[in-house]
Each structure stands twice: as C-alpha cells, then as structure tokens.
Specification:
It catalyses: N-acetyl-alpha-D-glucosamine 1-phosphate = N-acetyl-D-glucosamine 6-phosphate. It holds the Pfam family AMG1_III. This protein is of the alpha/beta class. It folds into 4 domains: 156 residues, Alpha-D-Glucose-1,6-Bisphosphate, Chain A, domain 3; 115 residues, 3-Layer(aba) Sandwich (Alpha-D-Glucose-1,6-Bisphosphate, Chain A, domain 3); 120 residues, 3-Layer(aba) Sandwich (Alpha-D-Glucose-1,6-Bisphosphate, Chain A, domain 3); 94 residues, Alpha-D-phosphohexomutase, C-terminal domain (TATA-Binding Protein). Helices cover 40% and strands 18% of the residues. It is built from 18 helices and 19 strands. It is globular, with a radius of gyration of 24 Å. The protein starts with 6 loop residues before the first helix and ends in a 13-residue tail after the last helix. Bound molecules: 2-acetamido-2-deoxy-6-O-phosphono-alpha-D-glucopyranose and magnesium ion. Magnesium ion binds next to loops.
Length: 551
C-alpha cells in the first residue's frame, strides 16, 4: 500500500467523540438509527468509514445522509449511499457496526487497521463524499462530528446542506456519472428540480388543467424542497403545502406524515378543515422518501391510497405505454412487493404481471426490481420507485416508432425515465408520476381507488425482550423460529375467511410486528390480536400484564 492511515489525526479527533459505554449500535435496514443525542461517536466513525468506502471504490463519491425519516423528532440516524445512488452494499453493514462499537479510540484505530487490511483498501486512492441532513434539531451537531471524521482521514467532502434523502441519492449518482454517457443529471438540488419539472411539463402538455394538490409535508424537509419544486412547476401543478413548521419543536412527524396516515389509516387532524371531498391529498414522511395519497368521498369518508395502490396505478400505465409504443413482448414490466402488500393488490397485480415477494427493506426490493426490464417496486408504506434496465433505456432511445401514436407513447416512456428518481423511492418524484398518470387517465382518487378493493388489515406490535429469536423464511411470510409457533399461527389463520397473517422481528425497533388481514374488518382485527397473543405467550410475557385485546 502506498500510504498509511493518518493515525495521529484520527486519534486526536476521535478523542473528541468518545463512544458512550452502555450502548450497542447496529447498522440495520435504515442505517444507524437511535436517539440523536447518543450518535456523536457514530457520526465521526461513519465519516471515516465513508471515506474508506470511497477509497475502496477507486475514489467514487459516497453519500452520507443524516436523518431518522418518520421517527420522532428526538431520534436521528445516518446511512451511506453507494456510487450508483443505491443503499450501501450489505457486506459493509457489518463493518459499520463493528467500527461503531469499538469501545475506545485505541480499539477504533485497531479495528480500522484490521479492516483496511482485510478489505484490501488502497489508502493512496482519493476519498470523496457528499453529505446532507434533514431538518432535525440534532442535525447540525451531528454534521460537525461527521465532518471531523472526513477531516481525520482527509476526505474531499461536499456539503449538500439540508435536503431530502432522495435528493442526496440523486446527487451521488449525478456526481459519479458526470461526463459519462450515463450522465444522470446536473449534480445539484437545482439540477434535480429542473430535471423533474421539465419531464413533468412535457408529460402533461396538452392535458386538461390539473386541480391543485394538498401536500402534508410532515413538518420536515419535504416542506423546503416541496416549495422549490412548486416554484418550478408554476401553474402546471399548484402544490398546496401544509405542515411546513420545520422550526416548531416537536412538530416533525407528529400526528402527520406518511407513516402516521398509513399506520393510523386516517387523515392528519391538521388537514381536517383543509381537504375538500373529492380533492387529492398526499403525505410525505420526515425525509420525503415515502408517499401516501388519499381523498375524502362525498360523505366525507377517508380513503387511503397507499404504496400498493401506487404500484397498481403506475404499473398499469407503463404496461399500456409499452404496448402503445409497439414494444409489447420486447419490454417486460414486473412488480416487487413485500409480505405487507395487501392481498387485494397482490391478487390484482398477479393476474396481470410477473410479481415477486421479497423481505422488507428497500435494498431487497430494489435488487429484485433490477431483474426486470422495467421493475416497479413499492412497499405498502409508500416507499418505492420504478427501475428501467440499461437495455430498456437503450431500446427506448433506438426504437423506431411506425405510427404517430407509437411515437407519442415512446416519448412518454422516455420522459418517465427522466421524471422518476431511479436511485431510491422519492416522495416528490413519485407524486409527480402519480399526477401524470391521473392526468392521462382522467382519474380522480375514486377511480384510482376502484382498481381493486383492499382487504381489511391490522398491524400490531409486541414488545419482546429479544427480537432476534424470531427467524423467518419465504420472504418473511413464515417463522422458522421459535419452533412450533408457525404451526399455531397456521391453525388460527385457517379459522378466518380470507385470513392471512405473518410475524417478523422489526429491523428498526425492539419489537415483533404482527400483520393480519381477513375479508371482514372485525375478523382482521381479531386475527391480528390473537396472533399477537401467541407471540406474547411464546416469549413468556407476564400473564397479568397481557394486553386485554390479545384475547
Ligand atoms: C426502514 C426501511 C423500510 C422498511 C422499514 C421497516 C429502508 C431505506 N427503509 O424504514 O424500507 O419498510 O424499515 O421497518 O430500507 P421495520 O423493520 O421496523 O418494520
Ligand atoms: Mg423516510
């Protein structure tokens, strides 16, 4: 190796960011995520790690995002973004966890040394990173710790300021493809907004005026980027931004945002006097990478259009366009879902398209979607996007349409590749995509909702002492451990019409999640609670404290 670790600089700065002794950190599905005020040492070390990742990949730019998404305001977190804008390679999650848990500066330096050797990192390579944060109050201090990490190892670091998670992913890809034939776009937030809004305007040109859209920004960073996007869109689509109180303590994700809507299956109370019957509304989460739509019917009844409904709407539209462009049989559109996808949506989609079920977490969905020519992936919680393979992109640019109608459809498809953030799920990009489809189909929320009927469902969490004893198989649809529990669940499920239920350990909280659905609302609830009861008893929960609804 041409050069060595700058051990002195690392030591000196590391001493300013000691690891709290009583905490174990874990790089999970969403990176490191916990209370913001205990993350200082993690940030410093992630700064060093990001630089090493860049060196390992020959100086490609690595992204670092400081956010805790839809979690409460006191939480924060950090995740790394690989050069093509995708999640950090899974093998490095373990290295991140190891480095974060080294007890002292000495232990950290030793762990780094060992890691550099085993991972064969050439330290003479440049290290380049780009980083951003959301609006959380703990953000600035954590950024300072991260910057110390960059400084310690001598990384070339670019601060992208306060922006959404999907913008950071976009930036990483844009920077790494600059000047190549895969150039993804201008590498700035402004470049991102230009790219999306230009494609959107082309896609809705000639369509009837689109009525304004109500957006719940979760009092997070989506409010900032949403406002800039609104300025770019002008009259093409008026964005009515609500829950934009980014400076009000405690407001972030509180009784608003995509996660609130999806979990409580109701309208944020703050929109009660805002959203009119028939009007379209949507909620972003705290870092604007999840999106849930909804509307009120004539009777003022709330209807939710979640990630499954988004997948159905978007996939059907793309299939139609490929047919109209004369590319039927040449480009295969496929769907990726998780076990949380509503049974109604799985049935609807499976009758029309190839479909795959994978484990929870964006990295699993994203990778599975890459196997299709056009892969549509959405989690029910509203995180998802559409991926066009490079073969498909080439096919679209070289295809010779034989009629004007084919040419129009082909152009729409090409513009969609520009509109969609293909690096990761992006609430703002997905929102524009949905607006395009609704405009093309002349759909209101009601018509979109009628594509299929959701089965009533219920999500329950059970607090357990040790969630890792729960092990799953078959894309998390079955438990393999603790032994015997799955058989008991099966026995219960059979007694419910249209019953389905599964149990999995959360990747982000110390709980086990129970999902159940059935043909009738009361049955879905009862099944969920009874399965939760089985889990509770299995882990030796105190019978005296057993929640009453766990029957
Ligand atoms: C994280 C995942 C999300 C998943 C959720 C499940 C990413 C970027 N995010 O937020 O995809 O749905 O975790 O949480 O992968 P759970 O494991 O606690 O149920
Ligand atoms: Mg999020």
């Amino acid at each position: 190796m041409a050069s060595a670790l700058p051990v002195d600089a690392i030591r000196t700065l590391s001493e300013q960011h000691p690891k709290p002794s009583n905490v174990h950190f874990q790089y999970g599905t969403a990176g490191f995520r916990t209370l913001g005020n205990i993350l200082d040492s993690v940030m410093f070390r992630v700064g060093v790690l990001a630089a090493l990742r860049s060196k390992r990949l020959d100086g490609k730019t690595i992204g670092v995002m400081i956010t805790a998404s839809h979690n409460p305001e006191q939480d924060n977190g950090v995740k790394l973004v690989d050069p093509r804008g995708e999640m950090l390679e899974a093998a490095w999650e373990v290295h991140a966890t190891n480095l974060a848990n080294a007890a002292t500066t000495d232990a950290f330096v030793d762990a780094l040394d060992a890691f550099v050797k085993t991972a064969k990192i050439d330290l003479s390579k440049p290290a380049r990173v780009v980083y951003a944060r959301d609006t959380r109050p703990s953000g600035p201090a954590l950024i300072a710790a991260l910057e110390h990490g960059f400084k310690a190892i001598g990384a070339e670091a670019r601060n992208a300021g306060v922006t959404t998670t999907p913008v950071l992913h976009y930036l990483v890809k844009a920077i790494n493809t600059k000047g190549t034939k895969e150039e993804y776009g201008v590498d700035s937030e402004e470049g991102y907004l230009q790219k999306l809004s230009t494609a959107f305007k082309k896609l809705v040109a000639g369509k009837p005026a689109i009525p304004p859209l109500v957006i719940d920004c979760a009092n997070g960073v989506g409010a900032i980027v949403g406002e800039k996007l609104g300025a770019h869109l002008g009259d093409t689509l008026k964005l009515l931004l609500h829950n934009t109180a980014i400076d009000t303590a405690g407001a972030l994700n509180h009784a608003c945002g995509a996660d609130f809507v999806k979990t409580s299956q109701r309208l944020p109370p703050s929109l009660a006097s805002v959203l009119q019957p028939g009007q379209r509304g949507c909620s972003l989460d705290g870092d604007a990478d999840r999106l849930i739509y909804y509307y009120l019917d004539d009777r003022g009844q709330f209807h939710m259009l979640d990630g499954d409904k988004i997948a159905a709407l978007v996939a059907a539209f793309i299939v139609e366009l490929t047919k109209s462009a004369g590319l039927e049989g040449e480009i295969q559109v496929g769907i990726v879902q998780t076990a949380y996808a509503n049974g109604g949506s799985t049935k609807y989609l499976a009758e029309r398209l190839p479909i795959k079920c994978v484990s929870t977490g964006v990295k699993h969905l994203h990778h599975a979607a890459e196997h299709y020519d056009i892969g549509v992936y959405f989690e029910a919680n509203g995180h998802g996007t559409v991926l066009f393979s490079s073969d498909t992109t080439n096919k679209l640019s070289s295809h010779q349409p034989s009629t004007p109608a084919q040419s129009t459809a082909l152009n729409h498809l090409i513009n969609l590749t520009q509109l969609i953030n293909q690096t990761v799920g992006d609430a703002l990009s997905d929102m524009l995509l949905i607006e395009v489809v609704l405009a093309h189909k002349s759909y209101s929320g009601l018509e979109w909702d009628s594509l299929y009927v959701d089965l009533p469902n219920r999500l329950v969490k059970v607090v357990v002492p040790e969630r890792n004893i729960f092990k799953t198989a078959d894309a998390e649809r079955r438990l393999t451990s603790p032994p015997g529990l799955q058989a008991k669940i099966d026995e219960l499920v059979h007694r419910y019409e249209g019953g389905r239920s599964f149990v999995r350990p959360s990747g982000t909280e110390d709980v086990v999640r129970v999902y159940a659905e059935a043909t009738v609302r009361s049955q879905a609830d009862e099944l969920a609670f009874r399965v939760a009861g089985l889990v509770y008893d299995e882990v030796g929960g105190d019978p005296a404290k057993r929640p009453a609804e766990f029957l």
